[in-house]
């Protein structure tokens, strides 16, 4: 599930898919997760929470989170990324607070939550069910927020290097960016920063940066009428040739072909 970066629209993406390891990241959308098969570990900030079949989790916007799967059997979940603009009545809560524990156990999940998630799968993009999306998201929040113990969102942040790395990339991925510049801005050595990417994210700086840029580019391909060249530039790629190459490596198709695919 890709993060949605275009927050000037009331966007939503939802899909039921196989769960897998996803490294630490953050975005401006709220993320809703309902485990449908197996188990899932969800990390928010520096804490890790276990989820079983039927459990529901809500990750508030602008919180670093990641996913891990330890179960060798089939693990699936419904993942939804929803713009806060779909829930205007909950703006304050979503901006200022977050749950101490983002997971609601299956026996405590109201039937309306599962009904809303399953219904949104019928209308997976905003153009098909804009009004319905608003209604279902607000039903989910109305049924789940009262169950959470809330704390100030700023208390979830961390000054450790992993948090700083994810936050920095999220803020600067569309700019001209190098490992040396990032290390200088964070006040650490290039070798220390490289070890964060290899040891924690299991990738290197360039690949992690390109993943963030590709996620943004995919959102623009789906939610805008911008040309491929404009999307390439907005996403931070230095040339359309580079953009096309890394896009082909990840999706095994061109950006133009991706835009034409049903989503």
From TrEMBL:
The keyword Transcription applies. It holds the Pfam family Cupin_2. InterPro entries: Cupin_2, Homeodomain-like_sf, HTH_AraC, RmlC-like_jellyroll, RmlC_Cupin_sf, Tscrpt_reg_AraC-type_HTH. One of its GO terms (molecular function) is DNA-binding transcription factor activity. It comes from the Bacteria. PROSITE patterns: HTH_ARAC_FAMILY_2 (PS01124). Keywords: DNA-binding, Transcription, Transcription regulation. Residues 163-261 form the HTH araC/xylS-type domain. PANTHER family: ARAC-FAMILY TRANSCRIPTIONAL REGULATOR, HTH-TYPE TRANSCRIPTIONAL REGULATOR EXSA. This is Exoenzyme S synthesis regulatory protein ExsA. It comes from [Ruminococcus] torques. The gene is exsA.
């Amino acid at each position: 599930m890709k993060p949605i970066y275009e927050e000037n629209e009331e966007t939503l993406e939802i899909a039921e898919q196989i769960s897998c390891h996803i490294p630490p990241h953050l975005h401006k959308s709220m993320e809703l997760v309902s485990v449908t098969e197996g188990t899932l570990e969800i990390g928010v900030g520096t804490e890790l929470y276990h989820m079983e079949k039927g459990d529901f989790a809500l990750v508030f916007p602008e919180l670093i989170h990641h996913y891990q799967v330890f179960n060798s059997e089939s693990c699936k979940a419904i993942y939804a990324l929803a713009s806060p603009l779909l829930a205007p009545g909950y703006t304050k809560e979503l901006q200022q607070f977050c749950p101490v524990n983002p997971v609601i156990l299956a026996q405590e999940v109201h039937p309306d939550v599962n009904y809303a998630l399953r219904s949104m799968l019928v209308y997976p993009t905003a153009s098909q069910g804009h009004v319905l999306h608003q209604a279902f998201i607000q039903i989910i929040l109305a049924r789940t927020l009262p169950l959470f113990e809330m704390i100030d969102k700023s208390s979830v942040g961390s000054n450790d290097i992993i948090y700083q790395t994810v936050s920095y990339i999220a803020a600067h991925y569309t700019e001209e960016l190098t490992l040396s510049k990032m290390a200088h801005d964070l006040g650490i050595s290039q070798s220390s920063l490289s070890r964060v990417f290899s040891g924690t994210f299991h990738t290197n700086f360039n690949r992690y940066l390109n993943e963030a840029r590709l996620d943004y580019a995919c959102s623009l391909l789906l939610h805008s009428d911008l040309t491929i060249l404009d999307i390439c530039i907005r996403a931070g790629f230095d040339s359309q040739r580079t953009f096309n190459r890394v896009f082909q490596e990840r999706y095994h198709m061109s950006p133009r072909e991706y835009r034409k695919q049903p989503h």
